[in-house]
Design brief:
mainly beta, eight-stranded antiparallel barrel, 2 domains, 14% helix
């Protein structure tokens, strides 16, 4: 009987020595995440010299990669795409052009793991490129500040559902059809939802 107790004690001892190794590997795993989300694009109308600039509400897609340095802090790289119509109105005359909108941003991410739900906040910078579709002209790039918040809901240990709100602050594009000569500070609200995978 004492022989069996010795074997059990030995197995428990060896298992206990493996716990730190397991804990370390579990911390190292799951530091990277990729996610794809459907997004909305809602731009604020701005006025300059009697000209009102805005954009139609539209949908788009966001793709992101995150890397976490530890339990709470990480970085995110995001690409987004949307197609909307940039509008310019003055004295009842309305002009507009469809434009492809591309965004690329990098942001600091802070998260708070709470079991299956992980709220997060982010802030960073990047750029928006407005590429006109209906008129001849070159694409216009604008630097942008990005901020946001949201939460991840674990479906499994690897797959999760993400819902978030992002805001982009930038200077509005002034295509050749626009009588706006100055750049005006504008804002894009970007709610989104989708799925991700951690590895």
């Amino acid at each position: 009987m004492s022989g069996k107790k010795s074997v059990v004690a030995l197995l428990l001892g060896v298992s206990a020595m493996g716990f730190p190794v397991f804990a370390q590997s579990s911390l190292e795993n799951g530091r990277s995440e990729v996610a794809v989300q459907a997004s909305g694009s809602f731009e604020k109308s701005v006025i300059d010299n009697g000209v009102q600039h805005g954009a139609t509400n539209s949908g788009g897609v966001l793709g992101s990669y995150r890397y976490y340095f530890g339990r709470h802090q990480g970085v995110e790289f995001t690409y987004g795409y949307a197609l909307n119509t940039q509008t310019y109105e003055q004295a009842g005359f309305l002009a507009g052009t469809k434009s492809y909108s591309h965004e690329a941003t990098a942001a600091y991410v802070w998260r708070l793991p709470l079991g299956r739900v992980t709220p997060f906040a982010l802030a960073g910078a990047g750029g928006l490129v407005f590429d006109p579709k209906d008129v001849t002209g070159s694409a216009i790039a604008r630097p942008a500040f990005v901020y946001g918040a949201g939460a991840d809901l674990d479906i499994t240990s690897r797959f999760f559902f993400r819902a978030q709100y992002r805001g982009l602050v930038y200077n509005s594009p002034n295509f050749d059809i626009s009588p706006i000569s100055a750049e005006i500070l504008s804002h894009r609200a970007q709610p989104s939802a989708g799925f991700g995978f951690r590895f």
